[in-house]
Fold:
Amino acid sequence: MADLNAMLEAQRADFMEALPVPIPLRKDRLKRAAAMIADHADSFCDALSEDFGHRSREQSMITDIAASVTPLRHAAKHVDGWAKADKRPTMFPLGLLGAKARVEYQPKGVVGVISPWNFPVNLVMSPLAGIFAAGNRAMVKTSEYTPQVASLFEELCPRYFDPTELAFVSGGPDVGKAFAELPFDHLIFTGATGIARHILHAAADNLVPVTLELGGKSPVIVSRGADLDRAAERVAIGKMMNAGQICLAPDYMLVPAEQEPAVVDKLTSAASTLYPTLLDNPDYTAVINDRHYQRLNDWLDDARAKGADVVTVNPANEDFSATNSRKMPLHIVRGATDDMTVMQEEIFGPILPVRTYDTVDQAISEVNRRDRPLALYHFGKDDDERRRVLDRTISGGATLDDVIFHVSMEELPFGGIGPSGMGAYHGRAGFQTFSHARSVFQQSKLDVAKLAGLKPPYGSTTRKAIARQMKG
Structure:
């Protein structure tokens, strides 16, 4: 195991020695980070596919390569504006007397990044956009489930960064535990809610501020009057991308009771069109490992045992039992009930429960009796209903008439709420998350304390000042 404390102390010492962090240096780090990914895109795609057993090359280019370069370049373009001090008004009459107030954004120091396995490039580099824009250094703990990607990061990083700027650490749960216990200046964790509880406990001992990007059961509400063909296709795309191994994947659908058969038929048709074959289809990704593959099949067995009708979308009638590829068809779970595991846990795979409602208020209640999700999706044409859904539910983010897309809008804060996350990043929000907003007040040259009656001995001037304040 690397000497994590020594690594942290070297970064912090160099950070403190180099303060303040000039904007050109921040841009340079952002550009080097983008180059590290862009220059070695093919190697990263190969590593991703090896770690997954098979991963669509084009998907990797979209979700891990381009989606990493974009936020880094966006930050380099906008950091000048983000880093400007914000002028704030002063209380009357201090502004008239020459006093000034502002907020200055300072780097925090060394930020720890604990990244997940599902997008093991993007979910390192996207946080780094805000971290570097804010002027920080970073240490990254990669996932043990993607060892090829982790090894590639450790090989390439020294070519682009001094270890006091950026360093990568790999290893299992013991390394992860030690990493989370380090006294960082900020820590961002992306992963499962259960592990996040341990991360928070570890960070609490050092009072480390934490950003948690988690998941949950993100619902899709299909309204009466929605274009069912469009809704089914977009849900199928979102659910089958990365084989459903996405924190923002639609986790279950809520559809009008009378439209449930049509929705299932259209989902089946859309999935079959998108992926007419699966086993040898280079566009379709495998489940990450045997444990997760078995977990998903166990959950399907549980649903069947409890009365669900499971529709397996296998358009080419391929024999999945005769392969160890860990590719898994889309499974639509009809009649899913609360006692089924698929309705209790985040699925993180190509399984989609479909439930019914009679009124939109029933759908809203269904969402609200569960933990607050990372995302909410709504398809429909009724603006009043859509407004009601948005007003009466709480989620980390929302996409309307599609799924997942809000995460790709770089200037929309991305984050969860409650069990789906804590804090947000992306764009300006990421810069502010990884910055310390320091208040600066510059007093007037006049003796304001005397004018305001703040100097003892207190007298009539003091009483008049109190009276003015109390009047507002």
Summary: The chain has two domains: 4-214+422-436, 219-412. The longest helix spans residues 57-82. The first strand starts at residue 86 and ends at 88. The two ends are 60 Å apart (CA to CA).
